[in-house]
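I am writing to request your help with a piece of structural work I have in hand. A protein sequence and the structure tokens that stand for its backbone fold form the material at issue. Please examine both parts with care and let me know of anything in them that strikes you as inconsistent. The record follows directly beneath this note.
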Amino acid sequence: MFQLRRYGSWVRTDSEVLSFVEACGPTLALLFAVLVVAFILQRGWKPRDDRQHATFDYAARTPQGRSELTIALEDASALNAYDAHTRRDPDVRLASLVRFEPSEYQAAAYEVARHFREGNVISIDLGAMDNHQAARLVDFCSGITVMSSGWIFRVTDKVIVLNPPD
């Protein structure tokens, strides 16, 4: 059907509108995408402040009666939970076990990373650390096990075992 549409003082037919959309539509869509990306980059691309992400505030999410270490251990357990659909087997190889009882985070993180990279199973007793430092170490250990497809096991409230991938 032939229809006339009035836009302001111009009169256009449906076929003229469709031909305009066919001719200019891809260009307009590309222009819109470029503008959206530019807006996102302008708003979201800012240099990070190292102090901003260097610490994690467990106190903000700690319900009464639960320590930040308990929450970190539960998060690590949930993150590294066994998935029945994967073919990985979470066996612990005790032949190369390294045992730590750290008192501070920085040195412990370095040693754990070194031994984990070498393929050793690591047992970490968190009893000598305060809860905040222990929670940071558990988060660090959880991160390296997830990144390398390893496993983390919670043995007791203060002991975890890291198992590197095969």
